[in-house]
Amino acid sequence: MTASLSGRRCRHRGSSPVSSSWPNLVPRARISPSIAKIALAAAFIPMAMSHDHHDEGSIPEGQTVSVEPIDATLWVHIFLQTFAFGIVFPLGMVLGIIKNRWHVPLQVFGTAIALLGYALGHLHGGRVFNEKNVHAKAATPLFFLMIAQIVLGAYLKLHLERGIHGRIRPFFRTLHSVNGKAFPLFSWVQMLFGGITALGFCQGDHLGQCAAHFIMGSAFIAYGIVLTILLLVGQLWMRRTGRSQEFYDSAVIAAWGCVNTFTEHHWGTEWVKNDWQHTTMGIIWWAAGLVGIWLSIGRDGSPKRNFIPGFIILLTGWAMSSHPQEMMISAMTHKMFGYTLMGVGFTRIIEICFVLNDQPGVSEDGREIKAFQYVPVFLLYAAGFLFMGANEEQMELVLWLGMDAVAYVLILYSVASIMFLWTMVLINVYDRAVNPVTKAVPNGRGRGEEVQLQDANEFELDGLMSDDEDEGRKFLKGEGADDDSIGSPSTVGRNNQHVV
């Protein structure tokens, strides 16, 4: 975030890679999906690396982008990368965790889309960007992380377990798993970098407040995602930890408060209004956070629920609703952000104290969820997007477009709704695979419709399934699996080993 956000785009000179076909003499040849991904990535490398640069002389003095509009090629690049990194790869990650057979085909498709978008990012015309933009700098490491993930997945699919491979395989499996689960986070950061680079935001004096808005806004969205996971599939896991949700929330609040206390004001310089507000906000965060940690542990060490995290969020929303702003539209957007955050804290306190009655959940099995429990979670998504969209340059752009604060807030709430929906879809895909829904049937055997459908599908595809997939199926049914089938939920898992 704090890196320079100025940038450039490049023009490709080379030609597209020439495709080849298999000889007719080998009609039954098969290609591993992992090998296909490596070949596809290698085919795009020359296209991305052999390019010329746009003329940066068209960029006005003191600006980071030219006045030309974004052309169609760059819009296609934006759409393809958002589709690949925002939809395909997260879904593929979940399918890898549950050992679904569609994981590898989906990741092959996502890799092809991502590499095509990467190439188009160097072929566009129209708007020109400065040389050192953070989006272009972050693209290369992200690209090699993706290639590394492919290589690790291909190695793990070979199942080499003898000799030195038996010693290094667990390390590669862990690395593959961690990188796969972290990839959505890398993708989120890169998409934010792309947005602020395309608009020429976060430069010079705007850098500090821009970084603060995007970091804090992303933190609220991440908190909402964590609460969504814990609400839908994590209640029993939380009980097994021996700690309440408020213990972890209060610990994070206290740690974040310590950071804000000593970083929001440049010590040795004059104090201004915003410095006082930000610094005192840090103080109340760590002070009240310590109280929340204390209240979350009973006399006998048992986990206890408390109101402190919700109260801190409510207080933060109240402070942000009255944060001084220079533009009226910015003041109204910040006020709506503050009200939304106050709603998060208020509804969270009601949920803990009155809906759950200080209990870990509504039911013992952790499957029952009250409608009211979704309210604070959804408002966290909305608060995050409102805060990210309330930075100074974005407010100036909205004002220049002639849009009022009401329309702008409704747009941000719409984006938050889509993000909330997509998060629940991904969690639902995981939950239905790991915890199949069973319903009583007239024959009294208790087999659910979904289980019957699953059995039917498995019967039809039984001849097409590999041994590894059969082990993954047994694992989901609780029949046991070997160490390799449960040790590496990642973005390249056990699936079809061959594609015709």
TrEMBL record:
Domain called DUF2427: residue spans: 59-159
Keywords: Membrane, Transmembrane, Transmembrane helix
Transmembrane segments: 74-97, 104-121, 141-160, 181-201, 213-234, 246-263, 275-295, 307-324, 336-357, 369-390, 410-430
Sequence ranges of Basic and acidic residues compositional bias: 471-480
Biological classification of the source: Eukaryota, Fungi, Dikarya, Ascomycota, Pezizomycotina
Family matches, as Pfam families: DUF2427, Ytp1
Domain of life: Eukaryota
Region (Disordered): 1-21, 468-500
Official protein name in the record: Uncharacterized protein
Biased composition (Polar residues): 487-500
Protein YTP1-like C-terminal domain residues: 187-430
